[in-house]
């Protein structure tokens, strides 16, 4: 490599003076031509052409060999720059130290992210069916996309039949209530009759004991007393029957009222109306499609596909950042870790809850990252870490001397590699081309390449670019240094 650098230096030095050399050669060629012209004219007319040419050629060559090739006569004058360089420092060509881009290990925040993608779905869907059948839809109050509160009316059914049934139930309730009053009156009447019969029995018994009464009168009094007591017991049972009838009438009235209330279809939960399938004039039935579908609490999340090898790193509550089509970046959190993995796709379905945003719609595509870890760590450029057969290594630079050091590498984050062990913050490492060096090699550390890359990435798109004339203005004195630098690389 050093010999090649010396050779390139000499070639570029000679090339710098090639126009002067060409001019001197041209002048040397013209001088013998002029000298040979008189001799050619002095030859006899009958002289052979070949002899004249033979005599002329040696004369020309021997006339002035120094003028014919001035570069060979005085090499020092032909390449004064090379002579001065060699005289000034003859060991430069053998002691070229390559310039190598280096970087400093520093503390930085890194993240471990798992890529994912999926579709926006409701966290919980609520289907709304009519709870009475056979009634016509006469009014629709909401449409898909509307936000509703719990208990808000969504649609109305024809309620004429339900109102008539409620009126009938009200009448039955009033009649049952009146039956209780009638039963209570009957109880009072039978109790009075029982008291009277008991009193007649007692009088008949006294007369019988005194000998003034007959046995027939006594028997008649005993029968009347028994009948009165039975009638009183029956009247009390009638009250219980009337109370039961009242309870039944009251239940029927409540059912009629519920059926009437159900002719107004209401939202069971607050949320966002996702779909509406019913139409005016439709007949409510117990089967078929739901009239409305509501996203409970308007919560939309991502059914995110995650590769099976990354499932072990997931935990509920992990932060997520998803890019939703047509919306942009939306933050969220991992709610559910996949419980199963598809045997076909080898993917699991995780649920990522997103922050509330009115622009979110179910069915949109989303892709992004689930952040499983975020911490401060020592980092170096990813290109500085060399993967060996048994371990990872970095080329540490100290006082211009390289030391090959094994390290334990960690997370790769934004072109930076985490160094878990083996390197301290502030140490300098070879940022690129470290594989071409070994311990003990000397280098000239530089960070110009890294600065150029940063500047290139931050240059605006409309910024002017350098012209070829600006980059072609290298002087001949600078050419050997450029060539030596390129050769060392």
From TrEMBL:
Residues 1-22 form the signal peptide. Residues 376-430 form the Multidrug resistance protein MdtA-like C-terminal permuted SH3 domain. Keywords: Coiled coil, Signal, Transport. Residues 22-90, 441-489 are annotated as: Disordered. Residues 22-31, 41-90, 455-474 have a biased composition (Low complexity). It holds the Pfam family BSH_RND. It comes from the Bacteria. Residues 125-289 form the Multidrug resistance protein MdtA-like barrel-sandwich hybrid domain. Gene3D superfamilies: 2.40.30.170, 2.40.420.20, 2.40.50.100, Helix hairpin bin (1.10.287.470). It is found in: Cell envelope. Residues 232-259 form a coiled coil. NCBIfam families: RND_mfp (TIGR01730). Belongs to the membrane fusion protein (MFP) (TC 8.A.1) family. This is Efflux RND transporter periplasmic adaptor subunit. It comes from Paracoccus pacificus.
């Amino acid at each position: 490599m050093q010999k090649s650098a010396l050779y390139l230096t000499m070639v570029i030095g000679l090339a710098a003076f090639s126009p002067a050399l060409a001019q001197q050669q041209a002048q040397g060629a013209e001088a013998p031509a002029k000298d040979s012209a008189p001799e050619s004219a002095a030859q006899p007319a009958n002289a052979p052409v070949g002899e004249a040419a033979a005599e002329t050629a040696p004369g020309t060559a021997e006339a002035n060999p120094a003028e014919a090739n001035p570069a060979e006569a005085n090499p020092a004058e032909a390449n004064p720059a090379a002579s001065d360089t060699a005289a000034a420092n003859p060991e430069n060509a053998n002691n070229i130290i390559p310039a190598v881009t280096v970087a400093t290990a520093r503390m930085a925040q890194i993240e471990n992210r798992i890529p994912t993608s999926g579709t926006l779905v409701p966290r919980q869907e609520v289907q709304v069916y009519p709870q009475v059948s056979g009634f016509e839809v006469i009014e629709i109050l909401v449409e898909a996309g509307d936000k509703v509160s719990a208990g808000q009316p969504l649609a109305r059914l024809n309620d004429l039949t339900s109102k008539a049934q409620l009126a009938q139930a009200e009448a039955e309730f009033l009649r049952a209530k009146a039956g209780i009053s009638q039963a209570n009156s009957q109880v009072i009447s039978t109790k009075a009759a029982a008291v009277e019969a008991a009193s007649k029995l007692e009088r008949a018994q006294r007369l019988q004991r005194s000998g003034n009464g007959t046995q027939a009168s006594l028997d008649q009094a005993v029968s009347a007393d028994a009948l009165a007591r039975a009638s009183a017991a029956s009247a009390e049972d009638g009250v219980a029957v009337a109370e039961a009838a009242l309870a039944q009438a009251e239940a029927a009235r409540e059912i009629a009222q519920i059926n009437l209330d159900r002719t107004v279809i209401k939202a069971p939960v607050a949320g966002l109306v996702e779909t509406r399938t019913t139409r005016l004039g439709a007949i409510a039935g117990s089967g078929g499609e739901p009239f409305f579908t509501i996203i409970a609490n308007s919560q939309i999340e991502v059914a995110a596909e995650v590769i099976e090898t990354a499932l072990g790193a997931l935990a509920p509550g992990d932060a997520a950042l998803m890019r939703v089509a047509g919306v942009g970046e939306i933050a969220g959190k991992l709610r559910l870790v996949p419980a199963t993995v598809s045997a076909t796709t080898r993917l699991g379905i995780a649920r990522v809850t997103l922050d509330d945003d009115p622009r979110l719609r179910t069915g949109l595509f989303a892709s992004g990252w689930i952040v499983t870890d975020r911490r401060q760590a020592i980092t170096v450029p990813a290109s500085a870490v060399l993967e060996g057969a048994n371990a990872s290594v970095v080329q540490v630079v100290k006082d211009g001397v390289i030391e090959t050091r094994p390290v334990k590498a960690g997370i790769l984050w934004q072109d930076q590699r985490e160094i878990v062990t083996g390197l301290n913050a502030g140490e300098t490492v070879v940022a690129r081309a470290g594989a071409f060096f070994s311990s003990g090699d000397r280098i000239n550390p530089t960070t110009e390449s890294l600065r150029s890359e940063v500047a290139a990435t931050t240059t605006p798109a409309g910024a002017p670019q350098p012209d070829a004339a600006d980059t072609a203005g290298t002087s001949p004195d600078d050419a050997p240094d450029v060539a030596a630098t390129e050769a060392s690389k």
